[in-house]
TrEMBL record:
Entry keyword annotation includes Nucleotide-binding: yes
Annotated organism of origin: Marinobacter adhaerens
Alphabetized PANTHER family for the sequence: GLPR-RELATED TRANSCRIPTIONAL REPRESSOR, SCHLAFEN ALBA-2 DOMAIN-CONTAINING PROTEIN
Protein name: ATP-binding protein
Domain of life per record: Bacteria
Keyword check for DNA-binding: no
Amino acid sequence: MSRVYEDRVKEILANSSDDGKVKSRESTSLEFKENFGFKSLAKYLKTICAFANTQGGILVFGVTDNPRTLKGIDKDKFEQIKIEQLSTYLSEYFSPEIHWDIGVVTFKRKHYGFIAIKEADDKPVICKKNSGDVLKDGDIYYRYRGTSKRIEFPELKRMQIEIREKERKLWMEHIEKISRIGPKNVALLDLYSGKMESSNIANNFVIDEELLAGLKNEVSFVQEGHFKEKEGAPTLKLVGNLAPVDTVVVPNLDPNKDYPFLVKHLADELQIRSYDAQVLVWKLGLKNSKRYAIEVDAGASTIFKYSKYALTAIRDDLAKHEDKKEYLANASKEYQSRNKG
């Protein structure tokens, strides 16, 4: 749990009178709820999305409505909320991914729960699935003075302008680097596929030292003169002050775009049970390679998300077996035997 969010919630609760009346008002970044209940999940999700599309915000549980009074919650019950379950709901209903945190604070001998939402880096966050009359496929939700609703034109227009400005600055940075290096000396590296495109590259290429400085703590490089898998395999020659290691180059990709699947989503795509998808992820060792999976923060814990290559790997593996039911049953036995061991 982030200490920053915890301190912020305590500040909000402290802004109250001696008889427990809360002075803080609901706003573009704050909403109060008396209790947490999964029956109202769609409303919570709508507010979470609205906060992400605005400037971030906090849902505080344990404050009554009209008048707003400090009541508190059942701490044990609130802490039973499963992080992975809530993450799954958010991934099912919204894209790109929403970053959030959850926790409990104690104030004047009472407990209060909170869900804190970070402002989205990749806006807009869009609803992709209906839920009753609350959530609608294709809607973008925004926070307006204590209420969460479908975004209106002025805010959508401003969001589009911000997106274009961010892209413009990124393009300008790339163009400035290309101008400094020279168009003939530049190659394009697709971080998603790993392919290099250039009319001048033969066998070796140079990574710009500024890029190396930014990446050396995040990626590993194949040591010159060493081979990863078999003799004669091509290697990456390093230029610059960086200590090479005998591992494969693995860039940090975008978990929102490059790893869109949870295990449940893989199962839906493959038309198998979520448990069977989890078994095949283990059997194929997909969690061991960033090509297939990445571990991301999900509040107080972490979860794995999977790329389209993971989906393809599992689909190809299933295609090798005529009796898929028997294959999955045997794989399940191996999985259970391994876990018992």
